[in-house]
Amino acid sequence: MSANHTATIRTLVPHGGPSIDAYAESLFGHLPRSDQRRWARVYLEGLLTTSGKKSVRRLAAAVTESSTASQSLQQFINVSPWEWDPARTELARWTEHHRPVQAWILGITILPKRGDRSVGVHRRFIPHSGRMVNCQVAMGLFLLTESASVPVDWQLFLPDQWAEDARLRKLAHLPDAVQGRPLWSHVLDLVDSQAARTTQPHVPVVADFSGCPDIHRLATELTRRGRDFVMAVPPSALVRPSGPLGQQNRGLVTAREYLGSHQAQRPRTVIAALPDGRQRHVRVVSGLVQMPSSAGGASARHRMYRLFTQWRPEGERPARLWLSNITDGSIGELLSLAALECAAGPTRDSLVSRFGLLDFEGRSFPGWHHHVTLVSAAHAYHTLFGPDAGLPETVGGTA
């Protein structure tokens, strides 16, 4: 990566926040070479100032007038070896320092792709669109604050053909340690990583896993870690209803069947808070259940979970079903937590439309992680310090 040219760099001057230089140095100061740190700042600033598609060429042109900058920037993202976890750790620290965190939102993000060479790309049926798409599947962890959600960590799902094909692995520069794993395993990695870096250890996990078949394992492992959660689950998920006076029913039923049976509590009205602070009255059906014995072994056999859903009149579309290991809280509080899950949706839309989440031009596994780390950093700078966090100003400098 060449750094032997001089260029005019258009930098950002902050309004009420750190300069882009200070912010970039904080997140990417761990990079061992000065040219890596320099290109991290250029890429970050380009994401913040470039309108439309965030191609490497357009990002470079937005920040520097050098004719060779785009080549160096491409090399920095796709070829240069650098660790992204320290930057994500610092990004989480910045977010927690500037905003109290209410929840960790975990969500699956579908990234449509053309062609079949980008790491992890495969054909997948997307339920909400009702069609097959060519895509990558990413799992993101978002820190939800009172005003926004901030993405701070990512995992990329690898289907079998990518995990097992030596040729594809070589093309994508996949490290030997990176193997195909179920989605629940990626979720636990994200939770464990955030638990190790957070300064706010009692934040609950909120997620929509209504399309995930492994919620039993996930619920058991999160509970074992002492992590409170509220997550949407598939209607077909098997549960063991709690029997009268603490006696357990040995039979398994689906979550939908249980909440529609006489074993669940009768519908009742509770007060739940919406993310915008307003309150509403909601009719809810709930009950205590256990996971199948195989989900967590003998040690987890008697753990109780709260299963609940918004009651809907017969003939209306059923509401989502939610599971929580918070069994001593009120249903209204659990509904309020469940309502927070939708907060990550607008953030994902913004990452795509405003910060170029889909615009990565490389095909490698390290390159993808480099790109999404910088996209997350750009979104956080914009979110934490406002849309007017910086104004373009021309100064002399080197790149």
From TrEMBL:
| InterPro entries cross-referenced by the UniProt entry | IS701-like, IS701-like_DDE_dom, RNaseH-like_sf
Transposase IS701-like DDE domain span: 27-252
For this protein, the record's Pfam families field holds:
DDE_5 (PF13546)
Q: What protein does this entry describe?
A: Transposase
What is the protein's species of origin?
A: Streptomyces achromogenes
